[in-house]
């Protein structure tokens, strides 16, 4: 399943809303986003309208905005991005980072929720602490919290073993779509089916609220995660890559 440009653009809009930035502004066909450097998703420019986006002056303005904040300019390009944009960034010495897949699926019936998966519509301090620990965020936990506070209606899932949270997941509900984010299991409890249990449980819960479509993002070289999501019915919809500017010369 390869999604066309219009459907991919729709999912890109959902993805941007599902991971809000502290600041964002439309600039010459680009959605400029900034969140203090925490995550590439929230600190990159996303293509909205290709009409003027490849113009050198448009790229100059986006670059200048990032550099004024001490950030290296970063652009997010999908496989549908016009070649004129790619060529402009190539000419400026931009490198590629983290080729990733957006995987997508449609449901015709609810999944079966796993009894061990707990779900809440609110982000608790315990969920945030467990997610920060599993993601090894250290001092970036507050930045994650600021993103979570700005999310659309969401579902927070977790699994405990004894007194320890061993797996978490986030489902961002957007109309009839749900985006799955921060699906992570503690290393000592991987390959036990917890990621799938969380996806199924979130989908079963969201189904009751009219959700019929799901999407998620996964790094292309993470073969294990890709295989897991394919087993749950997800298929590759399209790919994207980040393009990062070279270090500024002194």
From TrEMBL:
Superkingdom to which the source organism belongs: Bacteria
Keyword Coiled coil attributed: no
GO MF entries: acyltransferase activity, transferring groups other than amino-acyl groups
UniProt keyword Cell membrane present: no
Domain N-acetyltransferase: 121-250
InterPro entries linked: Acyl_CoA_acyltransferase, GNAT_dom, Rv0428c-like_C, YpeA/RimI_acetyltransf
Keywords annotated in UniProt: Acyltransferase, Transferase
Pfam families in UniProt: Rv0428c_C
PANTHER family (alphabetical): ACETYLTRANSFERASE, N-ACETYLTRANSFERASE DOMAIN-CONTAINING PROTEIN
Name of the protein in its database record: GNAT family N-acetyltransferase
Species annotation: Leeia aquatica
């Amino acid at each position: 399943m390869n999604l066309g440009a219009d459907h991919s653009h729709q999912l890109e809009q959902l993805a941007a809303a599902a991971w809000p930035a502290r600041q964002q502004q439309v600039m010459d066909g680009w959605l400029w986003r900034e969140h203090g450097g925490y995550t590439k998703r929230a600190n990159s420019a996303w293509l909205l309208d290709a009409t003027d986006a490849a113009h050198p002056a448009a790229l100059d303005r986006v670059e200048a905005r990032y550099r004024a904040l001490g950030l290296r300019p970063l652009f997010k390009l999908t496989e549908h991005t016009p070649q004129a944009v790619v060529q402009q960034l190539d000419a400026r010495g931009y490198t590629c980072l983290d080729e990733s897949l957006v995987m997508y699926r449609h449901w015709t019936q609810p999944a079966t929720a796993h009894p061990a998966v707990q779900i809440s519509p609110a982000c608790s301090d315990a969920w945030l602490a467990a997610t920060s620990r599993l993601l090894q965020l250290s001092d970036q936990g507050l930045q994650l919290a600021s993103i979570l506070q700005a999310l659309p209606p969401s579902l927070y899932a977790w699994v405990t073993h004894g007194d320890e949270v061993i797996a978490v997941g986030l489902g961002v509900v957007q109309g009839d779509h749900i985006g799955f984010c921060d699906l992570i299991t503690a290393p000592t409890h991987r390959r036990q089916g917890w990621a799938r249990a969380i996806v199924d449980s979130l989908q079963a819960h969201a189904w009751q609220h009219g959700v019929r479509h799901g999407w998620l993002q996964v790094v292309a070289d993470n073969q294990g995660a890709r295989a897991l999501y394919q087993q749950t019915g997800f298929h590759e919809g399209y790919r994207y890559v980040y393009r990062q500017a070279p270090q500024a010369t002194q």
